[in-house]
């Protein structure tokens, strides 16, 4: 029997309540079995970078398993930075195999929303800013996942591009922008990848939740694209029963109610069918899709793939993917040679600094967290690489500004896994009427609106690392009070006549500096509570015994004495995280100041950034070596050391633009980032397209990435000078490694429509190919273009349109390094 026959046979045996029971969850991550007709329980799992640890059936608490570790893979931004379909396939193969080993039926990934806004909290989960790059990488990943008898779940459909009011913000792009920019990766997932799961997004689309949008779901996803899989919700989305039911939502996974039967697609759905308001055929279709996927992934097959987990091969894959995604941004000559790679024979004294030197990232970020079997930090990777032959000195540098209490001491956690303080906003100083509750990464607060007084309370659990006197330090503009274990230890009220504390004039306001010494015991937990009334900001920091941080004099002296300095900076999941966007594009905790001073102290300073979103780099021109490493998974430290020493030649390319300033980006420049609605005012000019249109020079362009060798691109050739109707054209170019070490280069093909009836980007990425070459070796690389590649979405005909005329092919190794050009002509019909 075929899958469809099996599905229809099962469906014919089911009662209406049984059909409805397949349209909603019966646990946090599962859908109930129907034993009467032989339908098994179906299990889903986060996430895109490794199978999430097991949680309890009906709560978000850990199930307490001791054998639910998984391979922590590099994040999808790293896959995107590899520009390599083989890495995408390898990532999917590991993810699918491990999901099956954990007896999961759906894995909730990969993610393909685009990095429209550098502040977006979930950029690290996705594949960059370009729709074609994401589309071409998601397909092999889906196929690899599903080859393991697991349904891949592409997310979040569609327009999930900010966390600011992610449930309520109303996305209102024009149709051309929707089709050309924000849907191609999803379309490829369906048409080319055959994806079985699609997760709807949180946001609204023209006034209704995306999960129940007739246009997004019925017209496009299930209509035009012919999607046969399951559309399921994320957790706690804003839907209603009727619209969700009739407009194509198949599975409701997480609604914030006490009983699963109160889900919108549970009892209310059944009641509407029984009342004749919704046809029973709607329930049939939802059940049919669930059953179709179950049969396709082998849930009724005794020979279903068993999967595998935490194997040596998977760990090797994690390392391989991480190395392929590392981007060498800058590498200048100092003395007689470039700063990188490090010479393992000559380097004897390395100074390592920075917040990411020994930081692990697997358990943060939100639904992408992974309970990794282990995680090699950058520092551990360096030590393993150099062994006892090199002296590696490690320091934590403190800036001249007062720093918040370091996360090392913060025991309290946000649900995303990040060390955090709870924060509550009140209407008045008495703190009776609560406005809202949220969380904040550290004890550094800036008011949302300087025109109005904020009444906030912040709480956290703090655990000292050493016993002894801790000097608490406060800088505040406004009333401030600190309690420790309910005892007031610092209090200050604004009073111009107050002379008990030192003050300094800053922007015509008085910054009050306070300090207090207190004895605390290592390993004990202390309840910290801050009350602040003011319209500006405050910082609570401390000097603790066994100080983690070195003074400026100490770390500068060490930098001058070192053969090389490596600063592992960037972001963490206190910055890149689900549920909250970043407030700016700056490196946190005054990293820019420290980096600038290190660069001045030692020309052989390597700035190695770990981050999933763009950051400003005011020191970029002064730096001689800059590397971007992303969140590299469990083998990150080994992978980074491989790159730094040249054991692996870097070949990653930026999948995002790195702007010089936040205000250079389209959403900020056009004032189109807020909590209410996003108009996508830049249209199709996302990312690099905007920067080229506006002639804004970023710090580093899209597609940029250097190597330890050199390549040439020559002898470009087109398979035809003119193509007609639905014909395709093949572009070939010869790539040669002209250097002395083996390496890989990414040939990037951009297309320029020389004369169009609509405004089109100066360059549009249409294809790419990664080629590995030994020194002196050359190969011909071919990239094909079809009619769709030439087309834009015509709002008049509601279809793709390739206009007649000349198109220019631009081949290069980055957006701003075009090496070869060629021109061809398109005709829409054959000449008679």
Explain what the structure shows.
Keywords: Hydrolase. Belongs to the glycosyl hydrolase 3 family. This is Beta-D-glucoside glucohydrolase. This protein is α/β, with parallel strands linked by helices and 832 residues long. It folds into four domains: 3-56 and 68-296, TIM Barrel (Alpha-Beta Barrel); 313-399 and 550-651, Glycoside hydrolase family 3 C-terminal domain (Rossmann fold), CATH 3.40.50; 407-543, Galactose-binding domain-like (Jelly Rolls, Sandwich), CATH 2.60.120; 711-827, Immunoglobulin-like. The protein contains 19 helices and 39 strands. The chain has a six-stranded mixed β-sheet. Helix 3 crosses helix 12. It starts with a helix and ends in a 5-residue tail after the last strand.
Can I get a quick summary?
This is Beta-D-glucoside glucohydrolase. It contains 19 helices and 39 strands. The chain is α/β, with parallel strands linked by helices.
Strand order within the widest beta sheet: 1-2-3-4-6-9
The total tally of domains equals 4
Percent range of helical residues: 10-25%
- CATH top-level class of the largest domain: Alpha Beta
Largest beta sheet, briefly? 6 strands, mixed
Specify the CATH architecture of the largest domain. Alpha-Beta Barrel
Cα-based radius of gyration, to the nearest Å = 28 Å
Kindly report how far apart the N and C termini lie: 50 Å
CATH superfamily of the largest domain: Glycoside hydrolase, family 3, N-terminal domain
Structural class: alpha/beta
Shape: globular
């Amino acid at each position: 029997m075929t899958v469809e026959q099996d599905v229809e046979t099962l469906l014919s045996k089911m009662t209406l309540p049984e059909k409805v029971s397949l349209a909603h969850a019966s646990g946090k991550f599962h859908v109930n079995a129907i034993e009467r007709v032989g339908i098994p329980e179906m299990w889903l799992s986060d996430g895109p970078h490794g199978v999430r640890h097991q949680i309890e059936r009906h709560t978000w608490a850990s199930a307490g398993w001791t054998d639910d570790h998984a391979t922590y893979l590099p994040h999808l931004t790293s896959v995107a930075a590899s520009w390599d379909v083989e890495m995408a396939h390898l990532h999917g193969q590991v993810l699918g195999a491990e999901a099956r080993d954990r007896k999961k039926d759906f894995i909730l990934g990969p993610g393909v929303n685009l990095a429209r806004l550098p502040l977006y909290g979930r950029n690290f989960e996705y594949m960059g800013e370009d729709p074609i790059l994401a589309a071409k990488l998601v397909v092999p990943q889906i196929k690899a996942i599903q080859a393991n008898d697991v349904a891949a779940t592409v997310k979040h459909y569609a327009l999930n591009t900010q966390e600011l009011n992610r449930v309520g913000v109303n996305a209102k792009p024009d149709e051309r922008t929707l089709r050309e920019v924000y849907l191609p990766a999803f379309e490829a997932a369906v048409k080319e990848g055959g994806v079985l799961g699609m997760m709807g997004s949180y946001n609204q689309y023209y006034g209704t939740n995306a999960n129940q949008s007739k246009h997004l779901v019925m017209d496009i996803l299930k209509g035009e694209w012919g999607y046969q899989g399951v559309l399921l919700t994320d957790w706690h989305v804003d839907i209603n029963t009727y619209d969700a039911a009739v407009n194509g939502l198949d599975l409701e996974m997480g609604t914030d109610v006490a009983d699963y039967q109160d889900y919108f697609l549970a009892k209310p759905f059944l009641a509407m069918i029984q009342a004749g308001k919704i046809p029973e055929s709607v329930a049939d279709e939802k059940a049919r899709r669930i059953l179709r996927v179950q049969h396709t992934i082998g849930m009724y097959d005794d020979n279903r793939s068993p999967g595998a987990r935490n194997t040596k091969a998977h760990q090797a894959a994690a390392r391989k993917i991480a190395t392929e995604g590392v981007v060498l941004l800058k590498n200048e000559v100092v003395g007689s040679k470039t700063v990188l790679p490090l010479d393992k024979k000559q380097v004897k004294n390395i100074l390592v600094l920075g917040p990411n030197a020994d930081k692990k990232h697997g358990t943060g970020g939100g639904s992408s967290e992974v309970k990794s079997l282990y995680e090699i930090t950058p520092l551990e990777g360096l030590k393993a690489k150099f062994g006892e032959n090199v002296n590696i000195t490690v320091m934590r540098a403190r800036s001249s500004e007062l720093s918040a209490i370091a996360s090392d001491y913060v025991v309290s956690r946000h649900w995303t896994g990040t060390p955090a303080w709870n924060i509550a906003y009140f209407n008045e100083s008495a703190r009776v009427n609560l406005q809202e509750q949220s969380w904040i990464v550290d004890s550094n607060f800036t008011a949302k609106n300087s025109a109005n007084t904020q009444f906030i309370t912040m709480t956290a659990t703090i655990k000292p690392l050493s016993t002894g006197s801790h000097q608490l330090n406060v800088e505040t503009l406004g009333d401030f009070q600190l309690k420790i274990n309910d005892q007031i230890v610092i209090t200050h009220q604004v009073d111009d006549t107050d002379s008990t504390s030192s003050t300094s004039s800053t922007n015509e306001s008085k910054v009050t500096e306070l300090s207090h010494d207190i004895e605390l015991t290592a390993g004990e937990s202390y309840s910290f509570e801050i009350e602040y009334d003011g319209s500006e900001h405050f910082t609570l920091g401390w000097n603790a015994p066994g100080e983690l941080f070195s003074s400026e004099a100490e770390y500068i002296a060490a930098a001058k004495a070192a053969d090389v300095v490596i600063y592992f900076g960037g972001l963490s999941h206190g910055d890149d995280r689900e549920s909250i966007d970043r407030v700016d594009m700056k490196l946190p905790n005054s990293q820019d100041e420290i980096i600038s001073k290190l660069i001045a102290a030692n020309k052989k300073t390597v700035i190695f950034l770990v981050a999933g979103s763009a950051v400003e780099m005011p020191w970029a021109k002064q730096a001689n070596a800059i590397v971007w490493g992303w969140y590299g998974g469990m083998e990150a430290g080994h992978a980074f050391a491989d790159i730094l020493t040249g054991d692996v030649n870097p070949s990653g390319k930026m999948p995002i633009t790195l702007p010089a300033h936040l205000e250079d980006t389209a959403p900020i420049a056009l004032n189109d980032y807020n909590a209410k609605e996003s108009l996508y005012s830049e249209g199709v000019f996302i990312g690099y397209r905007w920067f080229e249109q506006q002639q804004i020079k970023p710090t580093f362009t899209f597609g940029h990435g250097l190597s330890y060798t050199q390549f040439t691109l020559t002898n470009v050739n087109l398979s035809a000078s003119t193509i007609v109707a639905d014909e395709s054209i093949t572009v070939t170019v010869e790539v040669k490694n002209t250097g002395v070490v083996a390496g890989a280069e990414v040939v990037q093909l951009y297309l320029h429509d020389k004369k169009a009836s609509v405004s089109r980007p100066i360059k549009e990425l249409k294809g790419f190919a990664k080629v590995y070459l030994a020194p002196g070796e050359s190969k011909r690389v071919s990239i094909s273009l079809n009619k769709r590649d030439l087309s834009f979405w015509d709002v008049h005909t509601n279809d793709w349109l390739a206009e007649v005329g000349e198109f220019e092919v631009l081949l290069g190794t980055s957006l701003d390094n075009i090496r070869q050009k060629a021109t061809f002509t398109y005709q829409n019909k054959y000449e008679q």
